[in-house]
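Example record

The entry below shows one chain as it appears in the dataset: sequence first, then structure tokens.
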Amino acid sequence: SSSSSSGSKSSSTSSSSSSGTSAFSIAVSGNRLVNGSGATVQLRGVNMSGLELSSILGSGDPWGYSGFGTSSGTIPDDTFIRAQKCNVVRLPLNEESWLGYPNSSGTNPDPSGNYVSVVKKSVAQYTADGLYVIVDLHWSAQGSAPANAQQMMADSDHSITFWTSVANAFKDNPAVIFELYNEPHDISNAVVSGGGGGWAGYQQMLNAVRATGATNVVLMGGTAWSNDETWWTSNRPVDALNQIAAAHHDYNQGLTYDIGTNPTAATAMLNAPGVPVVITETGDSNSGSSYISAVLSTADAQGYGVVAWALNPADSFGAPNLLQSFTPPTAATTTSGAPYFNWTLSHP
């Protein structure tokens, strides 16, 4: 899925990314996420696609293909997001654009040389405005191949270096959550956990994050495109800080742990590790509202967070979409957007 931007928000006055003592924070306590006051937080928000793909596909604007109407160096306005009572945004990232290494195709992964600065600006502005931010490693590639697609897993060539760099960038902002890899697939639980065959495992990436001194919450999904998190019990990740949580993706694709069709199996699997659960992607592919409504009701019953895919307007590539247009963002929502924002607005 994908996204782009409207840059009427400036982050020039924001310094939240350096405020390590900020009261605006999120942490793991048992199987719940809590804020700086210790109150339980249910994450409810949106994916904002664009940063994973715009630069590597040739846009001089890191948000360029998102549909949000940004120009290079500006970021999407978050006014609409906050008006829907969302409290989190998820920003998919590209490891090659972040690290800036050359690839075999000769494609420049950061044409304007501003990828990292725009990501940092986005995170600083959104957290300053009271939104938690999930940054996830979305597009990656082994060796010198261009990072222009979703891979089976993070790679041992670049992904550990990526997370060391990203963790150093945001470790002083306790409102930032790290999701180590978007959607592992066609790969074993053992490799997902421990790596192998050129792939980086979650434990290696988690260790890299913690080696920077970062105490941020870390999210980890599983195989079958982050639908199967059984590796949490078979190969449980070890974190001395116990600041880890499970990510889950759920799209009504006939997968074993789709909440809308197999709620008993899905919730048993997700609850087994005893950690917080965040559904970091879900949607209805603009085909109706019944499935996403089932996911949302289960999320409320279980205390799971939900981050829907994606805020990007329907005229941008990559369904499902939550809006028909971002200009103005009050334009009619799609068949998944309408029930989703009714749900976010129904919460305190």
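Notes for this example: The chain has a mean pLDDT of 91. The CA atoms of residues 256 and 262 lie 7 Å apart.
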